[in-house]
Amino acid sequence: MKLNIHIIILYICQAHNQVDQVYDIYKKLEERNVLLSFKGMITSELLTTILQIMESKMEHIDENPKVKKKVFNILVECLQNLYHHIDQDNTIHIASEEKSALLMIAKLGDSYQITTGNYMRSSDVPVLKEKLDLVNGMDKEELKSYYKHVLAEGNMSAKGTAGLGMIDIARKSGEKLEYFFKDINEKTSFFSLTVKIAE
């Protein structure tokens, strides 16, 4: 199953007589070189579909196989991280968006940028921020050593990941992880993560 996000948005907006608005959205996506954008429920089936879409997109632009593999590996890590995090936080309720998330992939010159966003418990923000800052403070060799240490001795999380996701994303991208937390209310925050992948 392969989806065309732009066409789906167009059909939805035509039903509401909002063609001008969807065209503005389309142009902004084009101007920012967005290859794929999605907002909604994250399921295991959707993860497969997203990877199929990206495979088609990268074949169309005739991307270098080495770069393609790097982008795919990091995208898989980002999607798994997003999926597991949302599944873990399914007690959060904000209208009907308790499992809603954002994913956007853009090609900026010779590099790619993957951005994810999801709701999370505000009480979990300090711990996640500490982990991200720790990872961002390490160089390539330190990340490699830390990854092996956590893999061998780390306390496994409820999802069995031992917190390896962020470490692996940082290792594979070779870039610092950009993140932001926005308070929604006393119990809920919105977390966004941006990963840059240089060719």
Task: Kindly describe this structure.
The chain is an alpha+beta fold and 199 residues long. The chain has a single domain (32-198), classed as Histidine kinase-like ATPase, C-terminal domain (Heat Shock Protein 90). It is 50% helix and 23% strand. The protein is built from seven helices and five strands. It has helices at 5-14, 19-31, 44-60, 65-88, 125-136, 140-153, 164-173, and strands at 34-41, 100-108, 111-121, 178-183, 188-198. The chain has a five-stranded antiparallel β-sheet with strand order 1-2-3-5-4. Strand 4 (178-183) and strand 5 form a beta hairpin. Helix 1 (5-14) runs antiparallel to helix 2 (19-31) and helix 3 (44-60) packs antiparallel against helix 4 (65-88). The longest helix is centred in the middle third of the chain and has 24 residues, at 65-88. The protein is globular and about 50 Å long. The relative contact order is 0.13. The model is unreliable at 1-12 (pLDDT under 50).
Describe the secondary structure blueprint for this structure:
Layout: H1 5-14, H2 19-31, E1 34-41, H3 44-60, H4 65-88, E2 100-108, E3 111-121, H5 125-136, H6 140-153, H7 164-173, E4 178-183, E5 188-198
Antiparallel strand pairs: 1-2, 2-3, 3-5, 4-5
Helix pairs in contact: 1-2, 3-4, 4-7, 6-7
What's this model, at a glance?
The chain has 199 residues and is of the alpha+beta class. The chain has a single domain, classed as 2-Layer Sandwich (Heat Shock Protein 90), CATH 3.30.565.
